[in-house]
Amino acid sequence: MNVNNFFKIDSALCELDRRALDLCRERFGEIEDTAEFNQLKVLSAFIKNGVSEAYMAGTTGYGYDDRGREVLEKVMADCMCAEDALMRHNFVSGTHTLTVALFGILRPGDKVLCLTGRPYDTITGVFGIDEVTDGSLADFGVEYHQVELDENGRPDIEAIREALKNDNYKMAYIQRSRGYSLRPSLTVSDIESLCKNVREVSPDSVIMVDNCYGEFTEKREPLEVGADIIAGSLIKNPGGGIAPTGGYIAGRHDLVEKCAYRLTCAGVGREIGATLGHSRELYLGLFNAPHVVGEALKTAVYASALFEMLGFAVTPCYKEKRGDIVQCVTLNTAEGLIAFCQGIQSGAPVDSFVVPEPWDMPGYTDKVIMAAGAFTQGSSVEFSADGPLRPPFAAWMQGGINFHSAHAGILLGAQKMYEAGALQGVGL
Questions:
Q1: What distance in Å separates the CA atoms of residue 217 and residue 199, rounded to the nearest whole number?
Q2: I need a surface site. Which of 61, 82, 198, 288 has the fewest CB within 10 A?
Q3: pTM of the shown model
Q4: Alpha carbons 389 and 338: distance in angstroms, whole number
């Protein structure tokens, strides 16, 4: 191991590191195979659509006739196996992108059924779940309903079918990733099963998937197995660690058009939107995304193996099939969660000297601690970890734009925790 050429890691941790890497070899091979498949898919989309250097130039003002913007969206559509796509830097977050899709498709009086239990914290305000906040879907007369997960944290198929039989739902909503919950993320096979059951019971319902953290983790995307529309963030997987902001919506052409009218204005839609010189970053990020996602997946698998050896509950296990790049580590106490995030921060390439503390974040009900030593603020495909200060005091770690640095970062984080007396592993 070369880490000790540059950093001081305890010998017991070095031994656990060696064992963890040995456990991960087979999974690493599978991840690299998927990354190669997706990288060739992306390359094919670039070649098919004739991506040119001239498309990297930005536009200003209204952004009329921006050929680079148009071709980028065709490339993204092909990468996601979609009829159409929007991919813009002016989506400010994943939540904003999902909101545009929801408001684009839904109308007053429509009903939404969430198939995966309570959604991510920031989306609850969009639906108006806990209260009818100004500007929420509830404020505009859209009804939200959900089907609770079963005792294993999986979608309850029978309960979903029963709910769909008993009411007329405009949309069946699926959150692929777990958010701040301990339930498993959904694989594409899981989403395929959900889509099949929705189609059997409620064939006219629009199936929407929150695809955040899931892009390029498998050889298929949700649109290939029955979903109608997907949305995600460019500071997660498909931005490849290069896109500085943005999001995408992809799926059926008619639905993407509706979303475009919500993004800008009715009657104009996708025809406007200055790219301001960001096109090169979005193209390059998308091109790099399959490789970067593979590196992030290897980081998550390794972290799972190591922290399980250190005595922590982890999900998923290093051997399990993954539907996203997120790794959850349960720390059991507020002090353990804080130590973990501070340790991870110490191994980041940017702001490693910063000591994160829990604080109030917009859209979250509890204080959140976030280790985010990233080149792009809030990027989740870069090496980071965060979690709300509430039981079971779990941390959600994700990202790693290359495995070598993220591997060292995890070891540095573990070393920091060891020095703080927060580790319980063998020999530590």
A1: 25
A2: 61
A3: 0.95
A4: 9
Structure tokens at 16: 């656990």
Q: Give residue-wise pLDDT tens across range 160-215.
A: 999 999 999 999 999 999 888 888 999 999 999 999 999 999 999 999 999 999 99
Fold of the domain spanning 3-40+287-419: Aspartate Aminotransferase, domain 1 (3.90.1150)
- 116: number of Cβ within 10 Å: 30
- Examine domains 3-40+287-419 and 57-275 and report if their fold is the same: no
In this structure, what DSSP letter does residue 187 have?
Answer: P
Instruction: Give every CB contact of residue 407 below 8 A, 6+ residues apart in sequence.
Output: 3, 299, 302, 400
3-state SS assignment for residue 103: helix
- Residue 208, amino acid: M
Partners of 208 in the β-ladder:
173, 229
Phi, psi angle pair for 337, to nearest 5°: -60, -45
Return phi, psi of residue 393, to 5°: 55, 60
Q: Where are the domains of the chain?
A: 3-40+287-419, 57-275
Total number of residues shown for the chain: 428
3-state DSSP assignment of residue 416: helix
Which tokens sit at 248?
């995408």
What the block records as the tokens of 17 is 């590191």
| Residue position matching structure tokens 């094919």 | 44
Give residue 237's Cα distance to chain centre: 7
Handedness of CA 68, 220, 29, 386 (dihedral sign): positive
Q: Are 399 and 384 in contact (CB under 8 A)?
A: yes
Contact between 198 and 207 under an 8 Å Cβ cutoff? The reply is yes
Distance of CA 104 to the CA centre of its chain: 21
Taking domain 57-275, whether its CATH number is 3.30.565.10 is answered by no
> Is the separation of the CB atoms in 3 and 181 below 8 Å?
no
pLDDT tens sequence across 112-148: 999 999 999 899 999 999 989 899 999 999 999 999 9
